[in-house]
Design a protein that fits this description.
The chain is an all-alpha fold. The protein has one domain. The chain has three helices and no strands. Helix 1 packs antiparallel against helix 2 and helix 2 packs antiparallel against helix 3. The longest helix has about 40 residues. It starts with a helix and ends with a helix.
C-alpha cells in the first residue's frame, strides 16, 4: 500500500469512527439540527484533510462547507423570525385589531 492509499484508508476510517462515535456514544444533551449538521461536516472535513494533507485544496473545500453552513444557519434564522412575525400577525387578528 502506498502513501496515497494509506491516507485514503486513514481518512475514511477517521471520518467513519467520528460519525460512529457521534451516533452511538451518549451525549449529555440532544444536539440541535444545526449542531448535528456542523458535527457531520467537521467529521467529513477531517477525513478529507487527512487524504489531502490539509493542503490548499482542502482549505478551499472548507470555504465551500462554511458557505453552505452559513446559508443553512441563515435559513433557520429567517424561518424563526418569519414564524414569530406570522404568529404576532395571527395574534393581532385574533384580538380584533
Amino acid at each position: 500500500m502506498n502513501d496515497e492509499q494509506a491516507r485514503a484508508v486513514a481518512g475514511c476510517a477517521t471520518t467513519g469512527a467520528i460519525l460512529a462515535a457521534g451516533h452511538w456514544l451518549p451525549w449529555w444533551r440532544d444536539l440541535s439540527k444545526l449542531a448535528a449538521y456542523a458535527f457531520g461536516c467537521i467529521a467529513i472535513l477531517i477525513g478529507q484533510g487527512i487524504i489531502l494533507k490539509f493542503n490548499r485544496e482542502w482549505r478551499r473545500m472548507c470555504a465551500v462547507v462554511l458557505a453552505g453552513g452559513a446559508v443553512v444557519y441563515g435559513s433557520y434564522w429567517y424561518d424563526a423570525l418569519s414564524n414569530v412575525r406570522a404568529l404576532r400577525h395571527v395574534g393581532d387578528r385574533g384580538n380584533g385589531r
